[in-house]
Amino acid sequence: MQVAENKSLLMMMIDSNLSRVTEFVLLGLASFKELQPILFIIFLLLYMGILLGSFLIILTVTSDARLHTPMYFLLANLSFIDICVASFATPKIISDFLVEHKTISFEACIAQVFFIHLFAGGEMVFLVSMAYDRYVAIFKPLHYMTIMSCHVCIMLVLIPWGVGLIHTLSQLAFTVNLPFCGPNQVDSFFCDLPLVTKLACRDTYVISLLIVADSGFLSMSYFVLLVISYTVILTTVRKRSSASMAKARSTLTAHITVVILFFGPCIFIYVWPFSGYSVDKVLAVFYTIFTPILNPAIYTLRNKEMKAAMSKLKSRYLKPGQVSAAIRIALFLEAK
């Protein structure tokens, strides 16, 4: 009886030790203190640019009746997702550049894992929705407004959020109940699932395979689907020489650029087995910071309708001679 009690007490102590980690240490982007102020300024400016550019697109689309079309409705929702992707960890990253010890609680770490897969998984599917919109616009132009009805547009927005939610919950199912007893250092600037699971106090080889199968399958399957669909559309568009087809080619080129910039780093991180932590950190910066700030430029700076709507918005809300910072940036990039 005494042996059984001692064994039970020992197991309770082991379970207590296995769950004692309450926070993680983020190693960040660079270990050199001299780079921290520079990175702070760069990331702060990039994050402000994302917020300004994305909110400007949303405001422009909602305030101009001429842009109340399915394409611009989807574009405004893409801008909202970009804000979400950039905001799940960037404020924490910016504040960490000002402190020496970069820590994050266990709950906040799990929250970052939840939101990155919710937003990134949703954006993957959302890019498919935008590809479907372009497919209908090019192949069924006379029935475009009938096919892309208000109900269909809402479904094309809700489905990505549903897929993203299912995806992130399936990922968290692998992680939440893992025992963490140390070490607690995450070699990145935010909590990403493959890095967090490696810190668990048990063999996570099978879990790592499940993560790759889940995230890798999602990213690869939608990337291949988008490549095939855009290849078919471009092949068809190239055979036509009208002005509307030239505009369609320009729009499709922008869409393909976004797809490559977003899916490339995701596939490399979750599918490619030979990437190192330093490479993964650079790629993580790319799809969490640079892609959201490039989307407004790619989708709007070469779009005459958006530029005209922005000019109309400026004249409506600003005094003569006064130009907002976001519009100044847009005009400068356009001139370049």
What does this structure look like?
The chain is mainly alpha-helical and 336 residues long. It has a single domain, classed as Rhopdopsin 7-helix transmembrane proteins (Up-down Bundle), CATH 1.20.1070.10. It is 74% helix and 3% strand. It has 13 helices and three strands. Strands 2-1-3 form a three-stranded mixed sheet. The longest helix is centred in the middle third of the chain and has 34 residues. The radius of gyration is 23 Å and the shape is globular. It starts with a helix and ends with a helix.
SSE layout:
Layout: H1 2-18, E1 23-26, H2 36-63, H3 70-87, H4 90-96, E2 103-105, H5 106-139, H6 144-147, H7 150-172, E3 185-186, H8 193-197, H9 205-238, H10 243-270, H11 277-300, H12 304-317, H13 325-335
Parallel strand pairs: 1-3
Antiparallel strand pairs: 1-2
Helix pairs in contact: 2-3, 2-4, 2-11, 2-12, 2-13, 3-5, 3-7, 3-11, 5-7, 5-9, 5-10, 9-10, 10-11
Keywords:
mainly alpha; 3% strand; 336 residues; 74% helix; globular; Rhopdopsin 7-helix transmembrane proteins; single chain
* CATH architecture descriptor text: Up-down Bundle
Report strand order across the widest sheet: 2-1-3
Secondary-structure element order, as H and E? Answer: HEHHHEHHHEHHHHHH
Radius of gyration: 23 Å
Q: What is the domain total for the residues?
A: 1
The H-level CATH homologous superfamily, spelled out, is Rhodopsin 7-helix transmembrane proteins
Q: What summary fits the major beta sheet? A: 3 strands, mixed
Beta content: under 5%
How far apart are the termini? 82 Å
What is the subunit organization of this protein? Answer: single chain
CATH C-level name: Mainly Alpha
Helix vs. strand class: mainly alpha
The number of distinct β-strands equals 3
Task: Enumerate how many helices there are, as a single number.
Answer: 13
Query: If you consult CATH, what is the topology?
Result: Rhopdopsin 7-helix transmembrane proteins
Q: What global shape is seen?
A: globular
Mean pLDDT: 80
Poorly predicted runs:
1-19
What percentage of residues falls in helices of 4 or more residues? over 70%
